[in-house]
């Protein structure tokens, strides 16, 4: 698999909460900050979302907004309105006038990720992904949004399952979305994969995690000098090449430990360490505890949401 697919596979995203949000007239609500990755898809009408410390953002039909960690925010029919403070929930909600056809309809909720590798979420996602309908509606993403909106309005058997799966596909598509101006993207894997030379090096590391990679060898794959490659990788991806490799090895190891059924010798071999002892030493240094302690701490815990 390619690097993005491998990381998403470890995260095992799931649309934990998906609920319709309707409103009519003049309305506003507020939510506290929470760790869960939140999303909003506008199906009809418009609203204004205001994140703490930021200017109001207009959301219109077809717009998609994804946040890896949800800051405190308000949502309303107009900017500047102060509404009640609500707690996130899974039930459908109605705001504003209780009677009459709603003039605003959205699908909102949150994703959950595998707890052991939840830190990958913040490394992978930028602070916010906002895809206006004007930029996404003519491509694949727009067609997915149209299909999701159609399913949300239907009453077909299996609707809830289809909506959840389509949301998961929409998450992946949003991550790899290539539209818009990425010149101000934060450092991270997505930025690295958009750079052709760095993408070759990243793909090579993911294709053979066990290899004895060196900066010089990776620089050759990228078609750059060693110094130029190191500087560019650090600037675009946000860490040194070998640091990235170690982090990825530890992510694969954490996933194997959580799943269980593999010996430390096997895990060590799979991720490029010569022995279980060498792997355990590296794991303790990186994660802060021995592999066995990590596995026991994670056993039976639900995914973080």
Automatic annotation (TrEMBL):
Keyword Transcription among UniProt keywords: yes
Keywords: DNA-binding, Transcription, Transcription regulation
Database matches in Pfam families: Cupin_6, HTH_18
HTH araC/xylS-type domain: residues covered: 199-297
The name this protein goes by in its record: AraC family transcriptional regulator
């Amino acid at each position: 698999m390619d690097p993005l697919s491998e990381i998403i596979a470890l995260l095992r995203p799931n649309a934990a909460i998906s609920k319709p949000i309707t409103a009519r007239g003049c309305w506003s609500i507020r939510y506290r900050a929470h760790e869960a990755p939140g999303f909003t898809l506008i199906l009809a009408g418009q609203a204004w979302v205001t994140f703490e410390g930021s200017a109001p953002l207009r959301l219109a039909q077809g717009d998609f907004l994804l946040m890896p960690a949800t800051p405190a925010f308000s949502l309303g029919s107009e900017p500047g309105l102060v509404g009640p403070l609500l707690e996130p929930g899974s039930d459908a909600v109605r705001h504003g006038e209780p009677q009459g056809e709603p003039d605003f309809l959205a699908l909102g909720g949150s994703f959950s990720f595998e707890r052991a590798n939840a830190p990958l979420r913040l490394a992978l996602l930028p602070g916010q992904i906002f895809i206006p309908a004007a930029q996404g509606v003519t491509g694949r993403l727009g067609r997915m949004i149209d299909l999701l909106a159609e399913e949300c309005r239907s009453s077909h058997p299996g609707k809830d399952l289809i909506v959840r799966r389509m949301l998961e596909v929409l998450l992946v598509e949003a991550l790899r979305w290539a539209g818009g101006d990425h010149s101000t993207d934060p450092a991270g894997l997505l930025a690295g994969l958009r750079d052709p030379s760095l993408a070759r090096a990243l793909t090579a590391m993911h294709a053979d995690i066990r290899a004895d990679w060196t900066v010089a060898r990776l620089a050759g794959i990228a078609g750059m000098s060693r110094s130029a490659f190191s500087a560019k990788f650090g600037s675009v991806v946000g860490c040194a090449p070998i640091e990235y490799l170690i982090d990825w090895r530890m992510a694969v190891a954490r996933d194997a430990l959580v799943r269980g059924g593999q010996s430390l010798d096997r895990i060590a071999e799979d991720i490029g360490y010569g022995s279980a002892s060498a792997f355990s030493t590296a794991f303790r240094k990186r994660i802060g505890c021995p592999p066995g302690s990590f596995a026991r701490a994670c056993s039976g815990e639900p995914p973080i949401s």
